[in-house]
Hints:
Layout: H1 12-24, H2 27-33, E1 35-38, H3 45-53, E2 59-61, H4 66-79, E3 87-90, H5 103-108, H6 112-127, E4 133-134, H7 158-173, E5 186-190, H8 209-216, H9 218-225, E6 230-233, E7 237-238, E8 241-242, H10 247-257, E9 263-265, H11 273-277, H12 283-293, E10 298-299, H13 303-313, H14 319-335, H15 338-341, H16 354-368, E11 370-374, E12 388-392, H17 418-426, E13 431-435, H18 449-457, E14 461-467, H19 488-496, E15 502-507, E16 523-526, H20 534-542, E17 622-629, E18 633-635, E19 639-648, E20 654-664, E21 675-684, E22 689-697, E23 703-704, E24 710-711, E25 715-722, E26 730-736
Parallel strand pairs: 1-2, 1-10, 2-3, 3-4, 5-6, 6-9, 12-13, 12-14, 14-15, 15-16, 18-26
Antiparallel strand pairs: 7-8, 11-16, 17-19, 19-22, 20-21, 20-25, 23-24, 25-26
Bound molecules: beta-D-glucopyranose.
Beta-D-glucopyranose binds near residues 91, 135, 267 and 268.
Amino acid sequence: MATADHSxxxxxxxEQRVAALLARMTLAEKIGQMNQVNAGEGxxxxxxxxxxxxxxxxxVLNAVDPESVDALQRVAVEESRLGIPLLVGRDVIHGYRVxxxxxxxxxxxxxxxxxxxxxxxxxxxxxAAGINWTFAPMIDIARDPxxxxxxxxxxxxxxxxxxxxxxxVEGFQGEDLAxxxxxxxxAKHFAGYGAAESGRDYATTNIPxxxxxxxxxxxxxxxxxxxxxxxxxxxxxxxxxxxxxxAFLLRQVLRQEWGYRGFVVSDWSSIQQLxxxxxTAGDTDSACEAAIAGVDMDMASGVYAAQLEGLVDxxxxxIEVIDAAVASILRVKFRLxxxxxxxxxxxxxxxxxIDERLRIAKQAALQSVVLLKxxxxxxPLSKANTQSIAVIGPxxxxxxxxLGTWIFDGDRSLSVTGLQGLRDLxxxxxxxxxxxxxETSRSRSxxxxxxxxxxxxxxxxxxxxLGEESILSGEAHCRxxxxxxxxxxxxxxxxxxxxxxxxxVIMAGRPLTLTNVIDDFDAVLFAWHPGTMGGAAVxxxxxxxxxxxxxxxxxxxxxxxxxxxxxxxxxxxxxxxPETTVLIDDIPVRxxxxxxxxxxxxLDAGYKPLxxxxxxxxxxxxxxxxxxxxxTVLRIGEALTVSVELKNTGRIAADEVAQLYVxxxxxxxxxxxxxLKGVQRVRLAPGEAATVAFRLHSDDLAFFGRDNKxxxxxxxxxxxxxxxxxxxxxxxxxxxxxxxxx
Length: 742
Ligand code: BGC
């Protein structure tokens, strides 16, 4: 396991400034710093002026009009007794004006560089409006596609979410948090939020400590190690103690074990909700529980502002709890350079030309789209052989819907839709017949089907833009059935009657169960909600300007009943295999019951997903060969190199994401069947081959054992390298104790 990071540890000059300021503050001013209030729509600067001037408000959220932000900041700096600047928070989740693919789509790039660049342009745009704090990255491990917030997540895998979450932190915060254009990041939602029962937002989570540590916490540890300035608690109940009052998470793990020195903010009103959970009898106890557990700032409930003074007076909350919280908050304000640069910081943010921002958004979209299926190489289309295309579907020309969830400030007028992208790219050469088919993704009406069928009949290819509107995923937007909504499956059947090849472009905030329609498509591009430049990217992919290279950051189930289904599952004592799987129609009538030889699967779905984690096709073919380890025996403390020959055996230059998986065959707690341990995006010309090498250190093999402490255990390991989590090319090595003889 990584050791505590010292890069953002105590800095004596900073600590002196924090201590000096803290020493001048009254209790009321201290509690003010712990109070974040809503300054969004309908809340005027005037209504907040008195509270800020009196030092009773230390942070706001949702103020986005640069003039109001500046006015609020001036009140804090120029009119309050101590002149402490405000933190100005906003959900800048996947872009500000220019919108990148939803985080789940960004995860499909498997590319930390593009994710970092995306966060950087979002930060620059937001900072120019006076925002200095974003509530991102969201790094909740999500194994349940019913959960609407899977869209905001980086998927199901701890390694990938750790890498990409850290890249987002780096992009938002830059190298120097004090530089204009940097915004403080916020890793959320600590912790376990994604494990909501039945994928229903805000529902209870029950996560054994071992699983919490091995699966849900690593991305947060990575964010802390990347220097994330703040963390947000989860709304949910974690093993009986809601995260917002969970001292195990907030004190023991975060501060004591990880040495975190930033601050922790509650989620919106989650302190007040402690009473709704039934953990406390009311606001006084809620404030007490949250403060003692280590929540430094109250987002929006006003409970700290109303209760903490009395709690300190009565001795229930020690002044040292308040002082530590305020010091953590002030530390972030100092690190951001707010005391040295406010007001006016926003005007010094370096400008990035819109073309450059759009270029990065397009690049991210291009790499995020996953080619799920491409029968008979129907894609890419060629301008030369395609006289006409029918562009059909409720999401073909929807500048807003392609942006996805959490895009409060997104500028939909910049959106290039699929229809527009195709017109721009091939409109001069290919006739484009557009028929919407359905009003929205949820429509029940079939009134537009006939027109769509006519367009399909008379064209060389159909491009069917299906999926989910933005509002069907995101916070509180969970679904029990994750198939194509409305009458889309019927639209597919109708279009199929035309006999024209059908290429589906699916935009959605989550994996969908496509089992009932997949056979009707000749090709499928899964585009998530691809953001501002989504349509331009999709057009390039359809016509082969670029090859798809996205890979699934989450498993696609065949049926909802398989959920949770994820690649890094435990093996169990009766693992399934093709030989032992007898599906419902193959069971002999009146077959006698026996448990002998039975294995773990569903009679009506088998055990395989529709598409596995890491899956994603290309217009070219890649061959993996000659998997080698530079040594097959390793001691604890040492590293080995895993290398493979990767060759582009097709006729198109393309990127491939090579993935390294490991299995620890025997452990004191059972280990997953595979775990991702390395990722490399490689570009190869036709016929070109390259050696792809991964370094694997024994620390990378650590896990939390029976006592929930990190351990690296000697033993046998398997290694796979390939293009998805079912890759078959395997090698093995043995890990020995440090100093052991071979
Ligand atoms: C969400 C957070 C978000 C906050 C502020 C909450 O409802 O759970 O993720 O940052 O609102 O908008």
